[in-house]
């Protein structure tokens, strides 16, 4: 449900090391619009990190299935292995795993997110390893396609360091929130990191508001995409806490890492010294950055302290469990 269009940008793709003229449209008084022509001297990065993450996830899934070895380890109670021609890479019976993947015990052994092992087993590394595991082919394809559509464009615009940091920190943020609220099940997947990229796209639109055209359309499109994906998280067996934690982390990181110079700054070199802008960034960009840094530090500190003290987030918030699963006549959320 992630489109490959870029609703935020008012410009088209540019090739590496090019400096094209870019038109920015700003609304004037009375609803009129003015067009500003300026040299926007920002070259586009070559995306290599996102493709490498995709390759790493696919390779990791192949390794998971190799370790899983369904023909040897399956007990046969829930049916036969699927796609037996794959040998030890064949999938668990669909009654056990409808996503065409390994058993839960294999995922648990290889680093799935599990509250008890993190808190009582001193296995904090699971907060990171779970991001690189997937429950099945369906799960893997959905996440990797979303990563390609979202991540490559972001990496081309902002570079691998910033996008890599957002991806990893958001994934950890999703793991922390998930561990606080889900204690009886394991969780895997890169969804938290992906939601972090979506959150960063939204905050990047807010903090760089002055340089965009079609702001309302961009904002509406992003909100609809985010809302639909979060709504899917209320279905059973979908870890929406990881989605929310990743989204919140990425949203705050966007204000910190994806700030662009304010409108008109890049044309300053063509002006006389006394006519140039004094500040590269606007006052509200500095405010957003400061607030985001504080909230990010406080959020991670509080979350990690609560987690390693063994606290249950549901005890602090009696209704929060509805954020991850809403019971209906068709399914229960008890397990």
Helix and strand pattern? EEHHHHHHHHHHHH
How can the largest sheet be summarized? 2 strands, antiparallel
Strand order of the largest sheet: 1-2
Mean pLDDT: 83
- Structural class based on helices, strands and sheet pairing: mainly alpha
Question: Helix tally?
Answer: 12
Question: What is the chains' assembly state?
Answer: single chain
Return residue spans where pLDDT drops below 50 for at least 5 consecutive residues: 1-41
Kindly report how far apart the N and C termini lie. 27 Å
How many strand units? Answer: 2
What does this entry look like structurally?
The protein has 335 residues and is mostly helical. The chain contains 12 helices and 2 strands, in the order ββαααααααααααα. Strands 1-2 form a two-stranded antiparallel sheet. A hairpin with a 5-residue loop joins strand 1 and strand 2. Helix 7 packs antiparallel against helix 10 and helix 7 packs across helix 11. The longest helix has 26 residues, at 283-308. Mean pLDDT is 83; it is low at 1-41.
Short description:
With 335 residues, the protein is mostly helical.
Question: Secondary-structure map with pairings?
Answer:
Layout (H helix, E strand, L loop, with lengths): L20 E7 L5 E7 L9 H20 L1 H4 L30 H7 L4 H5 L6 H4 L7 H22 L1 H22 L9 H17 L7 H18 L7 H18 L25 H26 L4 H4 L19
Antiparallel strand pairs: 1-2
Helix pairs in contact: 1-6, 6-7, 6-8, 7-8, 7-10, 7-11, 8-9, 8-10, 10-11
